[in-house]
Predict the structure.
Amino acid sequence: MKRFRDIQGNDAVVSALRQMVDGGKIPHAMLLHENDGGGAFPIVLAFLQYLYCRNRTAGDACGDCPSCNRIAKLIHPDVHFVFPVAGSDKPVSSQFLPAFRELALQQPYFYENELFGSLGLDGKQVLISVNEARSLLDKLSLSAVEGGYRSVVMYLPEKMNQAAANSLLKMVEEPPENTLFLLITHEPEKVLSTIRSRCLLMRILPLSRTAEAAVHPSGTADETLYLDLFADLMEALLSRDLLTALETGEALAGLESREKQKSFCKFAVETVRGIFLQQQGLGELSALSDEERAFVVRMAGRVRPTFARGAMHHFDRAMLLLGRNVNQKILFTDLVNRLYMIV
């Protein structure tokens, strides 16, 4: 069960959400920007429990009333969950809800790859389709079962195609009374501008390393692997050893899934961002482990000042191409060559 008191960090966001409910001034659409696995989903659940709770006390939901219990179990009839799916029969999120609930209840700080793995969609091209949008509009055309708010929690709106956005635009722009959209994104710049511009953007700050280790105990091994691979890549590039760099690219292409490869690219972007901040004398702003910070400090003194911007662009491009099912070996060979030119 997630209430405001259970949320780690992001005190300013929690306070703002609480004040929205207390003051009766709730934006009809909010876009919450988190890092992958960063805690936006628990915050959304805590907000919804507070919004729907019949017995709020001391600035928090009671946790015991029927509404609190239904939201905590992800079965409230007026809360609809939407997320990217895939399949040949035009599937919608509701067909995958049992698996989604099982994961979200067990691990509310889930990663993208954990979600798609639990849905049986690992490695597939997922999206929020126009069929999904039409299904959602049908649900929202009905009155709220309990007479209060109707809420939509959409995970990864950046994976919504143009047709789906066009179908939902009017509803997001001018929703019926007491209709609320809560969108959780990892890449707000990729959310279609017609949707993004109609939302209040809220940044969910990354978890501290201590908190992250507590909620993602299995993620520590992945991050250690990613740091080792990225360190090998950077050492080879800085030594102008293209052959070894390409061998590291082969290792990246051999990671067990496209989601793991995307996770590596995201890790690399955050690490390169740390290098940039270190070069600007702002290293304290990056949320890194001690090992990652030591690596970033070493790299900041060795790479060109222009490297970080170019490298982040190339890793972002690699993530985009991974989503388009480009051959991984070709993709990572190209990525290594591009990085070799700018290091």
In short: The radius of gyration is 21 Å.
